[in-house]
Amino acid sequence: MSIRVGKAAKAPAFPIAAHKALENNQLRANVRRATTTIRNKRALRVEEMPDWESLRSAGAAIKQHTLAHLDHYLEEFVRNCERAGGKVHWARDADEANSIAINLIRTYTPKDSTAPVEVIKVKTMTSDEIQMNHALEREGIVPIETDLADMIVQLGKDEPSHIVVPALHKNRTEIRDIFRASMAQPELTDQPEDLTAAARKYLRERFLRTKIAVSGANFAIADTGSVCVVESEGNGRMCLTLPEVLITLVGIEKVIPSFGDLEVFLQTLPRSATGERMNPYNSLWTGVTPGDGPQHFHVILLDNGRTKLLEDEMERETLQCIRCAACLNACPVYRETGGHAYGSIYSGPIGAILSPQLQSLEHSRSLPYASTLCGACYEVCPVKINIPEVLIHLRGRVVREDQKTLKGKLGVENIAMQAAATIFRSERRYEASQRLARIGQLAFERKGLLTNLPGMAGGWTATRDLKPIPSHSFRDWWKSRNNTTWSPKSNMSQGGAN
Amino acid sequence: MHYNTGYHGEAVPLVRRFVELFRDAETVCVPSASCVAMMREHYELIARNEDDPRLLAEVQALLPRVFEFSELLTKKLKVTDVGAHFPHSVTYHPSCHSLRMLNIREEPLTLLRAVDGLNLIELPNREQCCGFGGTFAVKNMDVSTAMLAEKKACVIETKADVVTSLDNSCLMNIWGGLHRDGSSVRTVHIAEILNSVKGLAGGNA
């Protein structure tokens, strides 16, 4: 098995990658501007919905039910999709999915063809998860991204930094430079109309000459065997209708029981993702139709670690995700660092729980800690994934795995946590440690302040001042108060404002 | 701190100790929204994971009597004007856990508006996290500092003399950053503002 999520296994730890991202002011300005815009648009489109909370609950309920009976609904989808003329393939992991796709592309390429084999792609994060483009390129197949943002990322030899808006970290001028370099248009301006025209010309040529397309899917519908893709540009629609062969890669968690369930998700997804009431393009197709659209339709159902999550009720919640990225736009951590710091194509809060669970935890052990647990992600999630709760659950796994090793046991953090747990359990020990700390802190006190603490606490005082433990604590005051008549004065003389 | 950082086993005796200390209390008033959030969101889960029905029953019996400070005043005691005097311009930072876990929104503002002499100024982008996040502040020091920078800028923009909140942890973070910058803005827990009366140190400080 080769379960992997993009390049995540080789990515540096989050704090290290974040440090680098924070030094890039242009990137930070781009991310802030873009996330603020989408966040505000979303808020507007959610506020106008009187039944938003019911829609969230309904979405969560549908997903929970499906995940609890995933085998049943997947089999139903396969039956109905194949009855309509599609062919379904099962892929256990990234390598299997890629080799199925490569074999299909080879099968449908004329044997006497001398031109390089090209495939056009509809935005699909799942193909990035399995690094399909690299796999195709190794086989001499040229993947062409047609989603505008994916195209920018591909031409700029970059990585996606956002689930819905992969080039969110780039501004117009940077995009112009990428287009100038890769489209032989040295005079191109950064005006939206000019950029769009350049992209259209580049893409139309490829839409018309390419015979094979690879797509992802937002939903796979069990009772009809249909597949659904929602998008804003229409480039997806081109890929789904013009080529002769369509290969659709679907994570197994994307299945929903019935066509009627779209009623919920087609209301919550566009509002959450882009702040639109409805996506401009909602494409639904069922098998093949003679004389209309692709005549060969294949679905690759991808596991790549997903079934592992089904076992645990809390971990299973992660699979409810419909990839709207509202949590990224709401996250104050993502807002500062952008997506690349997460070292995975799944970034932001959902990435921080998805990547460590899909692949082995040791490859992304810093991700569950890349959050203040502020809860902004949970608040906006259209399928009510309690991301903070899952983060805490994963932190528990990291700690338990650490404590099994000698290095982990002797780690500063573990020792401090054990000591604190012992101290917090007893008033006597708590008071004694407070007295001790009052003495200990004298070594670091300057003008009544702690500004340069050693060890982990140094992470605090590098950028923040800290007040020493006061000579008279709340506990002391509480005790003395019991012996005297209470008056506001006796209170205020002790505490005072910070 | 233990539970949120992943030290789940270590948190269990602390839950037991809390229950032991407060099981006979008529009402438990907690001056930290974050602590109340930990109790309400996780104590039952901790007891369940321990497979300890007795602890679970005790937690369930105790929790309805636990109140965050501003909740206790407004929801249980139905008090909004405590007769305080605090002649300063004040801005309120709604801590994440008070806002999103306890759903405390208007209560502290109602209390602050009733304080004599207090000029309440709205904090821009107030619902955004200050970057504290417990051990996050040291484990992800750079990001925490960047988040704090945004919060500091919003505070400075209000020109308020005082920032208040329901959580001292946020205030410790915000004060730490502001003071390092040389700012004279003070951070004061809401209980201290409500405890200030005319002619006394707190009211005039």
TrEMBL record, chain A:
<dbReference type="InterPro" id="IPR017900">
    <property type="entry name" value="4Fe4S_Fe_S_CS"/>
</dbReference>
<dbReference type="GO" id="GO:0006089">
    <property type="term" value="P:lactate metabolic process"/>
</dbReference>
<dbReference type="InterPro" id="IPR024569">
    <property type="entry name" value="LutB_C"/>
</dbReference>
<dbReference type="InterPro" id="IPR003741">
    <property type="entry name" value="LUD_dom"/>
</dbReference>
<keyword id="KW-0411">Iron-sulfur</keyword>
<dbReference type="Pfam" id="PF11870">
    <property type="entry name" value="LutB_C"/>
</dbReference>
<dbReference type="Pfam" id="PF02589">
    <property type="entry name" value="LUD_dom"/>
</dbReference>
<keyword id="KW-0479">Metal-binding</keyword>
<dbReference type="InterPro" id="IPR004452">
    <property type="entry name" value="LutB/LldF"/>
</dbReference>
<dbReference type="GO" id="GO:0051539">
    <property type="term" value="F:4 iron, 4 sulfur cluster binding"/>
</dbReference>
<dbReference type="InterPro" id="IPR037171">
    <property type="entry name" value="NagB/RpiA_transferase-like"/>
</dbReference>
<dbReference type="Pfam" id="PF13183">
    <property type="entry name" value="Fer4_8"/>
</dbReference>
<dbReference type="InterPro" id="IPR017896">
    <property type="entry name" value="4Fe4S_Fe-S-bd"/>
</dbReference>
<keyword id="KW-0677">Repeat</keyword>
<keyword id="KW-0249">Electron transport</keyword>
<dbReference type="InterPro" id="IPR009051">
    <property type="entry name" value="Helical_ferredxn"/>
</dbReference>
<keyword id="KW-0408">Iron</keyword>
<protein>
    <submittedName>
        <fullName>L-lactate dehydrogenase complex protein LldF</fullName>
    </submittedName>
</protein>
<dbReference type="InterPro" id="IPR024185">
    <property type="entry name" value="FTHF_cligase-like_sf"/>
</dbReference>
<keyword id="KW-0004">4Fe-4S</keyword>
<dbReference type="GO" id="GO:0046872">
    <property type="term" value="F:metal ion binding"/>
</dbReference>
<keyword id="KW-0813">Transport</keyword>
<feature type="domain" description="4Fe-4S ferredoxin-type">
    <location>
        <begin position="312"/>
        <end position="333"/>
    </location>
</feature>
